[in-house]
Description:
By secondary structure, the chain is an alpha+beta fold. Helix content is 23%, strand content 23%. It has three helices and five strands. It has helices at residues 2-7, 27-43, 102-112, and strands at 11-15, 50-57, 61-68, 116-120, 128-135. A hairpin with a 3-residue loop joins β2 (50-57) and β3 (61-68). It is globular and about 40 Å long. The two termini are 24 Å apart.
Amino acid sequence: MRPLMVRKQHACHLHQPPHPVHVRGEKRRLVQILANLLNNAAKYTAPGGVIDVRVTVSAAQVEISVEDNGVGMPAALLPDVFDTYTQAAPTPDRAEGGLGLGLALVKELVALHNGTVHAASAGPGRGSTFTLTLPLAGADVPAPASMA
Length: 148
């Protein structure tokens, strides 16, 4: 997502623990999940905006949040934001568009990894936060489903 963030002059900050954190899953799909969340944050954040990625760890899970100070979402959109083809209203600065498939894919891939994802926004113009929760490697959970 770096080229899009550089083009839009976004500041992207990573807040993470000082030690490695391991989850059990398919690396390619985990990267796809994070790339989709970061891509959405970049598309819906005006030039010069800020995107924060936070990684926190508890006894059995890791939580990764992607927060932006972009266009935000009305409360009515939040329950449906992970549904196929759901999109916020287009804005003049969001020419990248999309089909409304990225967040639906995120939800499915996260579920296959025995995790959860949810969205929050204080409303239009107030940014959005997408929070992904995954079990830590070694936690007492089933192995992720095969994603071949």
